[in-house]
């Protein structure tokens, strides 16, 4: 198992390298130049040229990439063009906010999706099943930004129950309730699509399991339906779900870009949007690579959990 | 011998939008204490649904036991609540299935799967249950029982898994064991071993057995009495030797071939022309009339009753009413 994990970690290096090349190329090919946003429109051509030279933007693309990469290998993600701060510090500042949002919405998605998926499967074709199915399709079909806007309109603007945005009340001391109060709407919005998907996966995985022979055996042993479903059924049904879950990990980052923007949530996604508008190359690349690492790690976690949960799989 | 199980007029039907499938349709039989009753019949005759009806595990939705009584040890199982049935299943009545490869839970160890029944029904400690599981595994033929305990099912062969299923079924010392084609999925040599084991155990545990099978060789080997099922009904009931010597019902005669003798190696059900009618399309009269070589006019219109032709021997055919079986 340990050797398997080490082998997988080593395999990540070429994958991440490939992702970095492609991302760099796409970013470079996108229209717009970093300095346009940065500088005063009245600035002289010479000053702008000097700026470009200083940031290395006049070098050919492959030289720029090599320069960037050789710093990254040393753990240096460069300095933001616009904020003049080390990118690493900027990300480190915002990461906790994103993680809190991700973890909270993941927990929300799981505690709602799994029980409803199981109920929907065990009561197949019941009113509850239809209700859950319709709701989850709506959840899948609803765009995040629209749902977010609607919730803000309803709960923040009309009813005034929740704040419009931010992580906490400005100027206040740390207060857990205040934090949760700010967290709840963005977490719900971020969780919706995954919750819906997860409910569908749980339902179909559970449906497959409850028709298996060993479920009939468990019933023939005299176990209550709860034991049959949760001890004998769910443990088997969770195996594929957990895999999907690992693969879903990076989608939280994707979702957080929209949700953080909508709720002025100072996290990675928020930073990514502003960096993109400003063509702040070092920040864009660093966040892209962060997402890539999360993706490959998510894959690895899924495979490891698969082996842990399913005794038939051995490495 | 006293009666352990008495099934009276059992009807288990399946329902679809506008059709009724009388899969088990008025079954009468009983099982005495300590005896082995075989149920034979072609595929689709309702053997498995009969056993699931006794267990109260008719597939839902769609299936339902709509009439009858299943009197087990003095109580009608059909009158019990689901809560009361939980105490009967796996404890007083245990069941083993045709598919040893898939009947064990792949993510639980053998030990967990045996001990969980014991802990649940017998309220004993984990440690005691483990010891009992080791004993049981030794009884069913595992020399190194302690090691098997922590293995997962995928490490065992089909025959070994069926042994585990048997150990699990016998763990609570059931009064009745229902074995639904326990050897069909196994190699011939393994089949013989499993049958030997079941024969052994039925003596050791003094349980009654309902043995469901296609295989008349198995019947001859293990059973005391035989119930022949056709299209959801009993068509013949008999002691084992007499059945092979002198089958009464035309269907049984067909099954055994033209010259049925117990000492001749008559292993498989001989093929009868035609197919078992589908449950939504049973003939109006005798259900065997579409395939019976002796079919008469009244067989088309009227259903024969199951009548006692000789003491302890029943058959469902008009030929006996005329006294010329
Ligand atoms: N879940 C179900 N829904 C609808 N019909 C069913 C269901 N299960 C069984 N049946 C029908 O009931 C009839 C009897 O099935 P059963 O499984 O009892 O047959 P069997 O005698 O055990 O056959 P085999 O020897 O193949 O196991 C078949 O016609 C089958 O199509
Ligand atoms: S009743 Fe008629 S059709 Fe049915 S088995 Fe007897 S002879 Fe054949
Ligand atoms: Mg069957």
From TrEMBL, chain A:
Domain ABC transmembrane type-1: 95-302
Gene3D superfamilies recorded: MetI-like
Transmembrane spans: 9-30, 99-119, 131-160, 180-198, 237-263, 283-309
Membrane topology label: Multi-pass membrane protein
An example Gene Ontology CC term for this record: plasma membrane
Signal sequence range: none
A Pfam family reported for this protein in Swiss-Prot or TrEMBL: BPD_transp_1_N
Any Gene Ontology biological process: transmembrane transport
Keywords attached to this entry: Cell membrane, Membrane, Transmembrane, Transmembrane helix, Transport
Location(s), subcellular: Cell membrane
Annotated SUPFAM superfamilies: MetI-like (SSF161098)
Family: Belongs to the binding-protein-dependent transport system permease family.
Record-given protein name: Diguanylate cyclase
Organism field: Anaerobacillus arseniciselenatis
Phylogenetic classification of the source organism: Bacteria, Bacillati, Bacillota, Bacilli, Bacillales
TrEMBL record, chain B:
Keyword ATP-binding: yes
Keyword vocabulary terms for this entry: ATP-binding, Cell membrane, Membrane, Nucleotide-binding, Transport
Primary localization class, coarse: membrane
GO molecular function terms attached to this record: ATP binding; ATP hydrolysis activity
Topology class, membrane: Peripheral membrane protein
InterPro entries (alphabetical): AAA+_ATPase, ABC_Ni/Peptide_Import, ABC_transporter-like_ATP-bd, ABC_transporter-like_CS, Oligopep_ABC_C, P-loop_NTPase
Family: Belongs to the ABC transporter superfamily.
GO CC entries: plasma membrane
GO biological process, one term: peptide transport
Compartments where located: Cell membrane
Domain ABC transporter: 5-256
Protein name: Peptide ABC transporter ATP-binding protein
């Amino acid at each position: 198992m340990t050797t398997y994990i080490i082998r997988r970690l080593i395999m990540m290096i070429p994958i991440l390298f490939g992702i970095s090349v492609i991302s760099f190329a796409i970013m470079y090919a996108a229209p717009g130049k970093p300095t346009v946003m940065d500088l005063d429109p009245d600035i002289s051509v010479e000053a702008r040229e000097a700026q470009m030279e200083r940031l290395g933007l006049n070098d050919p693309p492959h030289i720029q990439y090599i320069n960037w990469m050789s710093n990254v290998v040393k753990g240096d993600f460069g300095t933001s063009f616009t904020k003049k701060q080390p990118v690493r510090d900027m990300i480190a500042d915002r990461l906790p906010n994103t993680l809190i949002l991700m973890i909270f919405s993941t927990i929300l998605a799981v505690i709602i999706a799994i029980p409803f998926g199981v109920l929907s499967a065990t009561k197949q074709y019941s009113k509850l099943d239809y209700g859950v199915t319709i709701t989850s399709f709506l959840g899948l079909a609803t765009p995040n930004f629209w749902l977010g806007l609607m919730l803000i309109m309803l709960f923040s603007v009309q009813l005034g129950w929740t704040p419009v945005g931010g992580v906490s009340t400005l100027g206040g001391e740390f207060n857990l309730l205040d934090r949760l109060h700010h967290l709840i709407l963005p977490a719900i919005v971020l969780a919706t699509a995954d919750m819906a998907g997860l409910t569908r996966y749980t339902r179909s995985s559970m449906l497959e399991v409850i028709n298996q022979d060993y479920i009939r055996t468990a019933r023939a042993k005299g176990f209550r339906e709860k034991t049959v479903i949760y001890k004998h059924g769910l443990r088997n049904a969770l195996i594929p779900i957990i895999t999907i879950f690992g693969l879903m990990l990076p989608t939280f980052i994707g979702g957080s870009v929209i949700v953080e923007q909508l709720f002025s949530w100072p996290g990675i996604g928020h930073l990514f949007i502003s960096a993109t508008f400003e063509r702040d190359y070092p920040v864009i690349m660093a966040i892209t690579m962060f997402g890539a690492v999360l993706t490959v790690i998510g894959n690895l976690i899924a495979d490891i959990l698969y082996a842990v949960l399913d005794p038939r799989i051995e490495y | 011998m006293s009666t352990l199980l008495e099934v009276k007029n059992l009807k288990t039907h399946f329902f679809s939008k506008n059709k009724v499938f009388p899969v088990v349709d008025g079954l009468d039989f009983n099982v005495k204490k300590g005896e082995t009753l075989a149920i034979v019949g072609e595929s689709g005759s309702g053997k498995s649904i009969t056993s699931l009806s006794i267990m109260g595990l008719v597939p839902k939705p769609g299936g339902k036991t709509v009439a009858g009584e299943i009197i087990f040890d003095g109580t009608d199982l059909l009158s019990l609540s689901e809560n009361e049935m939980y105490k009967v299943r796996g404890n007083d009545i245990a069941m083993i299935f045709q598919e040893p490869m898939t009947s064990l839970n792949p993510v639980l160890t053998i030990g967990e799967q045996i001990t969980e029944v014991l802990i649940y029904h017998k309220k004993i400690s984990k440690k005691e249950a483990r010891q009992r599981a080791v004993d049981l595994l030794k009884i069913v033929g595992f020399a190194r029982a302690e090691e098997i305990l922590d293995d997962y099912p995928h490490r065992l062969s089909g025959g070994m898994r069926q042994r585990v299923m048997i150990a699990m079924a016998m763990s609570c010392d059931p009064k009745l064991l229902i074995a639904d084609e326990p050897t069909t999925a196994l190699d011939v040599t393994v089949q013989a071993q499993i049958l030997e084991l079941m024969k052994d155990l039925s003596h050791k545990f003094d349980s009654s057995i309902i043995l469901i099978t296609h295989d008349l060789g198995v019947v001859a080997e293990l059973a005391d009495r035989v119930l022949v099922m056709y299209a959801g009904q009993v068509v013949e009931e008999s002691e084992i030797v007499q059945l092979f010597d002198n089958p009464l019902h035309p269907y049984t005669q067909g099954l055994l071939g033209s010259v049925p003798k117990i000492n001749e190696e008559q292993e498989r059900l001989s093929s009868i022309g035609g197919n078992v009618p589908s449950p939504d399309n049973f003939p109006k009269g005798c259900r065997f009339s579409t395939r019976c070589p002796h079919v008469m006019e009244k067989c088309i219109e009227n259903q024969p009753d199951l009548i006692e032709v000789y003491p302890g021997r029943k058959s469902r055919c008009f030929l006996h009413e005329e006294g010329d079986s």
